[in-house]
Amino acid sequence: MRKYDYTELGLKAGLEIHQQLDSKAKLFCKCPTLIRDREESNHEFFRYLRATESEMGEKDRAAVEQTKIRRKYIYKAYDSTCLVENDEEPPGEINREALAISLGVSKLFHMKPVDRMNIMRKIVVDGSNTSGFQRTAFLASDGFIETSLGSCGVDSLCVEEEAAQKLEEIGDSVIYSLDRLGIPLVELATAPDIKSPKQAREVAEYIGMVLRSTGKVKRGLGTIRQDINISIAKGARVEIKGVQALDLIEEIVAREVERQLNLLEIREELLARGAFVCEEIFDATGLFQNTKSKVLIQGMKNGVILAAHLKGFEGFVGREVQPGRRLGTEFSDRAKTAGVGGIFHTDELPNYGISEKEVQALRTALGAKEDSAVVMVAAEPEKARLALEAVIKRAQEALMGIPEETRKVLPDGNSAYMRPLPGAARMYPETDVPPVEISREYYESIETPELLTERAKRFTIDYDLNPELSEKIAYSKDLPLFEKLAEVYGKDELVGATLLARTLVGILPELRRSGVEVDSLKEEHFEGVFAAISAGEIAKEALQELLTALAKTPETPVSEVISSLGLSAFDPAEVENFISDLVKQKGAFILEKGPGALGPLMGIVMKEYRGKVDGKILSQLLKTEIDKFLSQNCQN
């Protein structure tokens, strides 16, 4: 990938962060915020959605495109969802717990809250909302964060309801799960102040850290999503949705810049060539009646082959715009919105069983000269027509510049077309939920937590943890458990904060990788284990073995598992006698090595008592006995 001077290119980028809140109930009903297994569904129903007009009588362009193909949306409901999710009952008042969490977040970004929060409807007709819209409320604005590369504004914070979760697509039907629908989330939108891929990642990391600092957000895959708005000076604003991995943000921004630059180069060359898009759609089915191409034969079973002539586009449809993606891929993305599998174009033909003779016959039929390209679609008549109309529109846009659009992120950092950017017609007032007054007294009563960065520094000071371990535990989902355990055992002589932190961020992940069901371990298990270590009942060396056993039988009391593993309390007299006898047996060795004999002899002692007696205790007992032996023999 080429290196760019992003300042010279006029890069502007902004982030939209969608973070689920860990509240007890959903945003507009009392249902719990539980994610269920689809097999637990006890009811399902379906809907057909269409675009509606705004208050001004306009239809949102993104919604219109989404309803070109009539899709059936099937919804799986549960005993933990209700009629509000089904859109068969009006929503209740907004969840006050979620509102308080959101106001706390706004404070951490130095934002100004509104005096009166009004609920709005945002048109969404992709099936992810049974109602055809998402409820959202603008809550605060005018915030900022500082980065190593300059300040970045935080323009807005909205409280929203989460969408339903897509499970699968079967033909023209899409199946959604209603367990996620209505979970409260905050949407944070930054100003377009980000000037480089590196700064984009730094801003995302900082916002994520602040949100986790509240201790009131959900953790895990899918609970936080990032959208990136990107443009360059001669390009256009593009929104890339669904970014999950922070590690990918820099690559996404860089690849979108590359895409826009390549598309601008293609435009200039097409215009210089006098390229032109013919809007007429040609029925080419008859030209392929004797084709050997299996994919065309399949397409013609219940359909047709339609074609379009792109004058002057020869060589450009196959031109790369992102690594592994071409202008033809952009055409294909548009065609797929009509429900077809893809397109064929002459920059890649003959191929797929289509012969050179058939390609030439196609060119002749459309009057396409050597500098022209032809695009084909094989599908049901209506889908083929809609697909080719979408391709023609995208080819026309290639002559104008960069189209404004919403794109989905791909695993490698590239992106693919989803829909046009929504416009102002997307929003209109919610009439079923009353506005909420935000008084100055109420806002000031909201407490803000200590940031995770500050907490990590405090752990280093208070518990003498090394900085790396402090940061790991501060950012861990097990932070609340660590803090609770550290209050009791953080400075315990036999336990200590280091052992607590290493258990949660080191031992548990290691056990999980080896197949142990560590998620079955509860708070009381850890409390029992560390209490036993603190009391000297077991050695910390037995920790991994004990946690593994507890994970297998989580209902068994800790004390019983300790006993079953043979880790019960040791007899101090027995240990002392063993060490005394060992020192006598190794007397000559001790006289030869002096205090240096401690290490080798410690190995023998640990072999006997590993997991039963703490290593510190054994080491101290052995050292005392060696020192006593040396003292007596030196006097003699």
Descriptive notes:
- It contains 21 helices and 24 strands.
- It starts with 5 loop residues before the first helix and ends with a helix.
- The chain is elongated.
- Strands 1, 4, 6, 7, 8, 11, 12, 13, 21, 22 and 23 form an 11-stranded mixed sheet that branches.
- The model has no long low-confidence stretch (mean pLDDT 92).
- The protein folds into 4 domains: 264 residues, no CATH class; 123 residues, 2-Layer Sandwich (Gyrase A, domain 2), CATH 3.30.1360.30; 113 residues, no CATH class; 64 residues.
- It is of the alpha+beta class and 636 residues long.
Summarize this structure as a short list of keywords or feature phrases:
alpha+beta; eleven-stranded mixed sheet; Gyrase A, domain 2; single chain; 21 helices; 4 domains; five-stranded antiparallel sheet; 636 residues
Summarize the structure.
The chain has 636 residues and is an alpha+beta fold.
Count of individual domains: 4
- Measured between the Cα atoms of the first and last residue, the distance is 79 Å
Largest sheet: 11 strands, mixed
Label the overall shape.
Answer: elongated
Query: Treating each run of at least 4 consecutive H or I residues as one helix, how many helices?
Result: 21
Please tally the β strands and state the result: 24
Mean pLDDT over the full residue set: 92
Tell me the structural class.
alpha+beta
Tell me the Rg in angstroms: 33 Å
Element layout with pairings:
Elements: H1 6-9, E1 12-20, E2 43-47, H2 61-66, E3 72-77, H3 96-108, E4 112-113, E5 116-117, E6 119-123, E7 133-147, E8 150-161, E9 165-170, E10 173-177, E11 184-190, H4 197-213, E12 224-231, E13 238-243, H5 249-273, E14 276-277, E15 282-283, H6 294-300, E16 304-311, E17 320-322, E18 325-326, H7 327-336, E19 344-345, H8 356-366, E20 373-379, H9 381-398, E21 405-409, E22 415-420, E23 427-429, E24 436-437, H10 440-445, H11 452-463, H12 467-475, H13 479-489, H14 496-513, H15 523-534, H16 543-552, H17 558-564, H18 572-585, H19 587-593, H20 598-609, H21 615-635
Parallel strand pairs: 3-10, 13-21
Antiparallel strand pairs: 1-11, 1-12, 2-3, 4-7, 5-24, 6-7, 6-23, 7-8, 8-11, 9-10, 12-13, 14-16, 15-16, 16-20, 17-18, 19-20, 21-22
Helix pairs in contact: 4-5, 7-9, 11-12, 12-14, 13-14, 18-21, 20-21
